[in-house]
Specification:
Elements: H1 11-23, E1 47-51, H2 93-100, H3 117-121, H4 135-141, H5 146-175, E2 177-181, H6 184-188, H7 194-197, H8 202-222, E3 227-231, H9 240-246, H10 255-278, E4 283-287, H11 290-298, E5 307-311, E6 338-340, H12 348-362
Parallel strand pairs: 1-2, 2-3, 3-4, 5-6
Helix pairs in contact: 2-12, 8-10
The protein binds 2-acetamido-2-deoxy-beta-D-glucopyranose (2 copies).
One 2-acetamido-2-deoxy-beta-D-glucopyranose binds at residues 165, 167.
Protein name: GDSL esterase/lipase EXL3
Family: Belongs to the 'GDSL' lipolytic enzyme family.
GO molecular function: hydrolase activity, acting on ester bonds
Length: 367
């Protein structure tokens, strides 16, 4: 039970934070050991997740896509060292959120055929690596678009109804926490395509993305979701792959890509606020991932990291999905010293900091 109240990784601090989590609401001893406080008497029935590789626990294992992470060294620090399809060395944000909300340790992939009704009742992830708000993003890798994910969500609702009836299903659907992590692939990949770049400038394209994002939230709302968290974009220009591609000889952060992320973020926040006003009974929460990830990248040592400009896998400069090979002897031995696991995705340790930051600041806004 105690474990559910904290999202801790280092054992020596865990016992301290367990005590703290009983006594102190919203306080924090150490960045990885903050107790997450839900409002009194609140029980979250389920966590339901949509988006891209940041929160795909292996949906892509079950479809014919080039975007997969179900082979070593992915999952190297996961329980049993299994490569589940998660795009990291260990757990991903959806898992850490469910853990912090006291629901379960892992949020499974909706497409996993071994799921039992209990797994469905406590939440799943519909996310698919390579997806984005732009419908073209998923098609580039034959991944599941957000529209596909909504279709799966509707199917999920039918399954719940068949298992526990209409009323219990509506209670679960309305009281659960929803998270949408998307948009990165749109800017780093899809926006570079001639059919996008030649047709739209950054200003227009980021507005289109924000429109797609708000439409998606409205569709979730129409299906009964009420508590919906939407992330903004991380500092994309500082992802190791983008430093390599666009950062020059010194692999600086790409100022242009960071700027594009900021332009999008500055539009998303007010749109989500007005959506919240417009949709009765909704709690639409803007989740800032830009700030905490930039904190880690700019001041790694302050947070216990040693390297933030390249990933752990291989040279760390370009390796991601199929390029991240188990046979690459350059891969780091201790991923917890790295902010990035591969050239695009953070390590579990970085994700813990990120999720803690989000929940500490924003969990109460869901209520
Ligand atoms: C479901 O809820 C409705 C409205 O509150 C109620 O009338 C009905 O009896 C409930 N059905 C069951 C099976 O509990
Ligand atoms: C972007 O394109 C739109 C529509 O074509 C135009 O009105 C706007 O001035 C352009 N913005 C910039 C910064 O070039």
């Amino acid at each position: 039970m105690e474990v559910f109240l904290t999202i801790g990784s280092s054992l020596h601090l865990k016992s301290i934070s367990i005590l703290v989590s009983y006594m102190v609401i919203g306080s924090c001893l150490h960045v990885y050991e903050c107790a997450i406080a839900l409002p009194k008497n609140v029980r979250v029935p389920a966590v339901l997740v949509f988006g891209d590789s940041i929160v795909d626990p292996g949906n892509n294992d079950f479809i014919n896509t080039i975007s997969k992470a179900n082979f070593p060294p992915y999952g190297r620090d996961f329980e049993g060292g299994v490569a589940t399809g998660r795009y990291s060395n260990g757990k991903i944000p959806s898992d850490l959120i469910a853990e912090a909300a006291g629901i379960k340790e892992l949020v499974p992939a909706y497409l996993d055929p071994s799921l039992q009704i209990n797994d469905l009742l406590t939440g799943v992830s519909f996310a698919s690596g390579a997806a984005g708000y732009d419908p073209i993003s998923a098609t580039l890798a034959n991944a599941l678009s957000l529209e596909d994910q909504l279709r799966h969500f509707k199917e999920y609702i039918s399954k719940l109804k068949a298992a526990v009836g209409e009323n219990t299903t509506s209670a679960i659907i309305s009281q659960s926490l929803y998270f949408v992590f998307a948009g990165s692939n749109d800017i780093t990949n899809t926006f570079l395509l001639p059919i996008r770049r030649l047709q739209y400038n950054t200003s227009v394209y980021t507005s289109m993305l924000v429109n797609w994002a708000t439409e998606f939230v409205q569709e979730l709302y129409a299906l009964g979701a009420r508590r919906i968290g939407v992330t903004n974009l991380p500092p994309l220009g500082c992802l190791p792959s983008q430093r390599t591609l666009n950062g020059g000889l010194l692999r600086d952060c790409s100022a242009e890509e960071n700027e594009n992320a900021v332009i999008y973020n500055n539009k998303l926040c007010p749109e989500l606020k007005s959506l919240k006003q417009k949709l009765p009974g909704s709690r639409i929460v803007h989740l800032d991932v830009y700030t905490p990830l930039l904190n880690l990248i700019m001041n790694p040592s302050r947070y216990g990291f040693e390297v933030s400009n390249r990933g752990c896998c291989g040279s760390g400069k370009i390796e991601v999905i199929a390029l991240c090979s188990r046979f690459d002897i350059r891969t780091c031995t201790d991923a917890s010293k790295f902010v990035f696991w591969d050239s695009f995705h953070p390590t579990e340790t970085a994700y813990r900091y990120l999720v803690n930051y989000l929940l500490q600041r924003s969990l109460t806004e869901f209520y």
